[in-house]
Amino acid sequence: MTAEATTEKARIGAPSIAGFTEEGEHLVAAKVDRHHSHGTQVMASRAERLTSHDVADFALPNGREEEWRFTPVRELANLLADSPSEEGALGVSIEAPAAVIQRTLRSGEAPRGATLVPADRAAVVASANTADAQLISIPANAELDAPVRLVLTGNGAGRRSNSHLVIEAGANSRGVVIIEHDGTADHNGNVEVLVRDGAHLTVVSVQMWEGEAKHLAQHDAEVGKDAVYKHIAVTLGGRIVRLNSNVRFAGEGAEAELLGLYYADAGQHLEHRSFVDHNVGNCKSNVLYKGALQGKGAHTVWVGDVLIQKQAEGTDSYEKNQNLVLTDGCRADSVPNLEIETGLIEGAGHASATGRFDDEHLFYLMARGIPEDVARRLVVRGFLNEIIQQIKVPALEERLTEAVERELAASEN
Amino acid sequence: MSTLEIKDLHVSIETEQGTKEILKGVSLIIRTGETHAIMGPNGSGKSTLASTIAGHPRYTVTSGTITLDGEDVLAMSVDERARAGVFLAMQYPVEVPGVTMTNFLRTAKTAIDGEAPKLRTWTKDVKDAMEKLRIDADFAQRNVNEGFSGGEKKRVEILQLELFKPKFAVLDETDSGLDVDALKIVSEGVNRAHSEGNMGTLLITHYTRILRYIKPDFVHVFVDGQVVEEGGPELADRLEEEGYDRYAKGAGAATVAAPAAAQA
Fold it and tell me: Which of A310, B24, B171, B228 is at a distance of 20 to 30 A from A19, taking alpha carbons?
């Protein structure tokens, strides 16, 4: 594969992060399984993955499929069934500046369904069981003075809900859309994002579910010429969360940034998958997911696919995942995949590192008078803040910082 | 005046082959204002002494005491020791992910002093201290020790020494891996902290060259977990010429002499 050679050349010299050296990876290999696709297995191209609007095309997964192999599918029967939403399972509230157009879209009603074509069983049953998709449309040239805020509240553990949200950022518009999830439910949520030419759109999906919530999601975006799209997934709560954030391009000069932050506690399975399809030349992408893990059975998964198609000359892409393991008994799976079909690119790199906050870090900070709890907070806060500060919505940044603090406090009890 | 007293200290570590005793009865008294050099060959237990004073969890004290003005240091946690005024400049400072130097220095200073430093003077103090140690200003925004060279890490250790103003500093092979210029810069920093803060210094080194820049009042020679000889600065000169060979050869005799030397 030419992919590997290009990768090495382009990015292997990227600065390493403290505690996240190659050595750091090996250090935790005994306790934390790592998966890396380098030459260990022959995988089908990501481009060949099935996508379809037809439920019949997707069998129920058994957990052995490539796209489900890390996921506890046996616990997802309710979510993977071709079932309608339960009445009242999910409450939705929307706050939006006056300029924003809100209406619903039937199945097949444009622009619904053109950008998001379900790529797995969860996504296909979600859309099939959502008669009316919510449209949030920012008119062309509009510059929103406040974010659009959707709050999706689950009204009971095990209660099935499906949703399909379509976000359209008109040409040259500017806007931020925040989707917050709280309460508890079995929620299948698709988000379809159209970023028209020259638009700048940030979509933040916050998973602050309680207790037993299960949430499967496919977020697909198409980014137009010279447009800038930022997708930020923040996952702190929920028993099982699996969020797939995918992007492709509709014109040259576009930029996409897929960011993520997750913090898994005992018994939580938090999975994030990203796929950047460089189907058009001269576009840029950057993927960065950072996660912290603490407590027995805390499990995180990140699978990052980047495909640079033959015609996508001049592509500049990079993807990275970093995990910070705070206690024994956690498992962080991290799989960066990079496929490159042309050598005529600006850059393509991928990196993954899982490090422990270990006794030596703790000793160093404590030897400077810093108490243990403060030392731990200092490290985790700093590590995760890199993502939080990308949101650029102060009120939300503050709430997320507080939420991370609560996670940290929980680790000390 | 403060006194750091180490009395008949025995320290062991757990290895795959079982428990191994590293320090076999070490006694030292260091007063503020004094500089003690501990010299010895590799593997003699010098760094174990340093790490034990700071409270590194790898080392188990099996008997003996360490007291600071009569207070039991061994009963204190690692952070309590630092707040009591003991500072260890580490031989291999670790990189700490996610924490900027600025944030780290302020957090540590706040912990040690029990109150946050006044922002304006603190910022200036940090800037001045960094300049004196020829540390690039942009280090302040980098994560603690992240990507720093060996020499830069040592300078950053001394930066902390100057900013935190401990009563006692233990310098664990601070000179190793430094070129002559860096050695001078680091030594000047130690000398500033010593004279301005009336600090007591325990300087652990394999080589005599740092003693050209930092003048010890006392020299203790460590061999096989014990102090085998003690004297004034002239002892360092002798080691410069003769090396540690004579202790290795006459190990038996030196060991016998040790308790007497320790009591001196």
Answer: B171
